[in-house]
Amino acid sequence: MIVILKQNHDRQKLEEFRRWLEAQSLMIHESVGMHSTILGLVGDTSRVDESLIEALDIVEAVRRVSEPYKMANRKFHPLDTVADIGGAAVGGGHFAVMAGPCSVESHDQLCCVAEAVKAAGANILRGGAFKPRTSPYAFQGMRESGIELLLEARRVTGLPIVTEIMDLQHLDSFADVDLIQVGARNMQNFELLKELGHSRKPVLLKRGLSSTIQEWLMSAEYIMAGGNENVILCERGIRTFETATRNTLDVSAIPVIKELSHLPVIIDPSHATGVARYVKPLALAAAAAGADGLMIEVHNDPAKAMCDGPQSLTPAQFSDMMGSVSAILGAREQAL
Amino acid sequence: MIVILKQNHDRQKLEEFRRWLEAQSLMIHESVGMHSTILGLVGDTSRVDESLIEALDIVEAVRRVSEPYKMANRKFHPLDTVADIGGAAVGGGHFAVMAGPCSVESHDQLCCVAEAVKAAGANILRGGAFKPRTSPYAFQGMRESGIELLLEARRVTGLPIVTEIMDLQHLDSFADVDLIQVGARNMQNFELLKELGHSRKPVLLKRGLSSTIQEWLMSAEYIMAGGNENVILCERGIRTFETATRNTLDVSAIPVIKELSHLPVIIDPSHATGVARYVKPLALAAAAAGADGLMIEVHNDPAKAMCDGPQSLTPAQFSDMMGSVSAILGAREQAL
Amino acid sequence: MIVILKQNHDRQKLEEFRRWLEAQSLMIHESVGMHSTILGLVGDTSRVDESLIEALDIVEAVRRVSEPYKMANRKFHPLDTVADIGGAAVGGGHFAVMAGPCSVESHDQLCCVAEAVKAAGANILRGGAFKPRTSPYAFQGMRESGIELLLEARRVTGLPIVTEIMDLQHLDSFADVDLIQVGARNMQNFELLKELGHSRKPVLLKRGLSSTIQEWLMSAEYIMAGGNENVILCERGIRTFETATRNTLDVSAIPVIKELSHLPVIIDPSHATGVARYVKPLALAAAAAGADGLMIEVHNDPAKAMCDGPQSLTPAQFSDMMGSVSAILGAREQAL
Amino acid sequence: MIVILKQNHDRQKLEEFRRWLEAQSLMIHESVGMHSTILGLVGDTSRVDESLIEALDIVEAVRRVSEPYKMANRKFHPLDTVADIGGAAVGGGHFAVMAGPCSVESHDQLCCVAEAVKAAGANILRGGAFKPRTSPYAFQGMRESGIELLLEARRVTGLPIVTEIMDLQHLDSFADVDLIQVGARNMQNFELLKELGHSRKPVLLKRGLSSTIQEWLMSAEYIMAGGNENVILCERGIRTFETATRNTLDVSAIPVIKELSHLPVIIDPSHATGVARYVKPLALAAAAAGADGLMIEVHNDPAKAMCDGPQSLTPAQFSDMMGSVSAILGAREQAL
Known about the structure:
homotetramer, alpha/beta, 8-stranded parallel β-sheet, 4-stranded antiparallel β-sheet, 14 strands
């Protein structure tokens, strides 16, 4: 961390500040120039609150050199994390495909889709039971009974399941779920993150619509700081000025996360675009760029889906996409 | 709502769709052109889910004509809502100033600041007890005991209090709070919004960092649909590419909200800029543009604040700002 | 185009408006509802100026149904355009790789890089002669003499060349250039676009940092409306709130452009990320998603580049990338 | 400027780098920590190209401490610049109002509007002769003959005139114009900026839609580096995700520019919102926040304007707005 002091700062206040820093086991290197004085702080700065320093009278600006996260940081954990989701490995070379309907609607709908995605090669079943909807008048999901149907579909197909939690008070309903999803709108629901940190249940952490990669890793750090290291990151599009797609898929997040962190990162092209016919090209892009997996919405009858129909693939489209994804993954393995 | 059909659509599917629409009491006007057919849907479309229609085979696009919110819509409630916050009126010509420290830190700090902001003309005391922090290693607030201190400060000064809720499970601690704040990161925490809708406690709903004005009003609608009409909106900066300020204050939101909705809208220039010396000019801008109030961070010793010190005003700076705000409000009243 | 009229509009003004529309050969379908009246305009609306209609007293809003561009529109030109760049085909299944240094610096530098990229499989040589730089104090390019060096490198290697034009007054210097690049900052330099439309020289049109896909296609339309149909689009990252990469590559633009337009679209991962080590994964993503080519910065000694060194590949890195790109293209061809 | 070196960097390369820096008259302070080494560079770093340093093998990151602009920097020119626009002062306490039609359409239209805005208190006449339009099929302005009409209107009313230049080749037509406007789309048309720097004609530099404040000041620096210090900045809205207004007015830019630079800054609420009924509240906000002036579109018959009608005020609305602006400016003067 670097602290740039104001010109003509009070020497006594600087002395107080130096003592405060030294009390936190930080070493200080001072560079005195004609127009400015710079302090270089060396040591563990991840627990130093920049805003406290920025507020000091004598300080002009603060620049962080090292990342503010530790548990999620590849510098301290060079090896890839491999998450175990009910028997399915994710990360470290294991490519996972999570597929299923946006919303769980009925036993028949769910099992039909689950069998289809399994046949096409998916290894984790997704399905929404609690649904975050922009409008209070839209379908809000089957809630607890949706989770029952997911558990039943797991018994039938053997696929582990992932589904979204919207509030801490529902946590008990997720006791048998294999992978708990924290949605984009809850990425900074810190009370929820802390509680999930006390569990050992794997967590799929979606990136917030306007969250930087650093904020996203800080939210992973919240979960990991509680002791739960089973975190999978999921990029699902960020909000930009472009309106041709619902969001803008930040495909660069894949190599950036791979460099900064050891956690697996998967891509959700369904929510990123909101348009079924763009899902396949973006799934291929994600596979080629080195993602650890995909999350794809599939519906037996998209035109009758109770939610997000326009972005759902039919089972036939999904199967076609899986063939192409396999080819890309094969080429990637050979070529790298 | 307008539905644009694909060229060469299946006539039988169109008939099914027409019947489905008519079952929802919508009237249909059809315009047949050479390259496209357009359906105009007339009636109460606020409960129609666009995405269901967009997913149909025969549909190319859907355009909404009327707003998807009703309770928050000025068309159906032409008169300004005036909220009563423990005796302080907000909206409909009543300008409110909510001021106080970012975080409650101690009895002495809080009462000192509360007396100072009251003397300068604030009529509601703000203070954070539960604090949403990006880093798990940063100060997380005094939590329940912070609320105790706020209630004590209310007894001493007579100022009603506003403080942020972060999770439903803490709701009981807010029983005596005058105005419950929903923070920007929780603007789409729908379970929280629904529960607050069942209460009659006034709610201050901050705009999400990347939320459109329409999404913000839909979140207000969540609260109001539950029966709670005491909602105050608070613009606190949106996320853009500009880095000179922490966020970008969307001052246009004031006239836009005034047109679309009857709810009061206030401005928080402290969080919008993150820089104390920009707070006063933006507070004046907000007052001039027609905001119903301000939310301002004030700290007796910003350099020692445990949170957000760089954006806090001293009591003296706040008092100076209040003088200028009054002058602007006076000029506005005279001139309009 | 759909026009939503205000409630209680003046019937006489509506009649005037209908006559004005009919004079433009548009047919009008009227849908009268309880709360609003909707006009559906049918015919060639690409030349209708929305803002003229929006300004009318009687109009509440205007929604465009069909695209405002025609020459660039796939609806009217279903077949892929294949551009011929000095013998190299781009589009319609022909994948082009344009590579070379950010700036032309010297004969030796340019020829060294040109030979290297040719050996690795590039088929067009890029190099900046006129350089748009944020700072007036930074290196501004070799200008006319840079173009001389590019022409010399073409003689030596046989590779056609692409280089950026910054101002109309330099047009004569581009007489022998194979492909004229219009940079992101000039995407809406309409006088330049019009003049290039009067030429028959192929144009590489980069997307503006904050331009929507529709605006980008409208800029292509400017060139094509002048008679020049040899336009290649190049996505090079858009500006968002994320700072981990210089810009955010909008990989979704590939399938969106493929659907809306018949023009070739290539990707520039060097400018999109600004970081050499992210170039390869994004190049692979682009190839997998269906791009028609790549533009890549390569420098024999990036650490000594006079411009944009941090994002340049070495010839060895470029050659490695090309091997992987070929593998992905092969897999894509097989699998689709 | 601060340079963070990679761990285990090559000592010999570091020595070379130190010598290169010293050759540029920079002093170097080294801070050696356990995990990183930091170099503080002291001296005139405005001409140092960060990207050259970032590209070095031994460098992990570069952080700029001082601003990269000098001529536009308040640190080196503490006093406000006051521009003289044909007799009208702008900046340093002189509030300017530039008003007139978006496009010059005819002698009668222009003179009618010019007389009206003069009567209401405007002191500079605006009007577009060369018009940048997104569509090649939209009205492109009266061009040279539009400038003739502006000069005529100046003779009639005595108001100095401001109008936009779109290309260097038209520069001769601007010989008698009082203030040359560089539009948002041309903010980084560096060849145009350089040429305007060689003139002594005042320049109104609009902010680009996605330009940071620093980039905007760097574009002012381009003009000033050529010797022309008569630059006025104009904020006209930036591009964000919000669609309720055409752009988002960045009102914070006013205090930020006032702190960083000595140049006058004015606000254009017409283009910022695109909606006539939002112009007045934003004009008042701008005046209250300390802007040096306004640019407002006024049309005698907005419904018949050939361009941007929806955002134009009528003369009566403009006159009403001016009354309120005066009241706000009066209150501001008294209170500050």
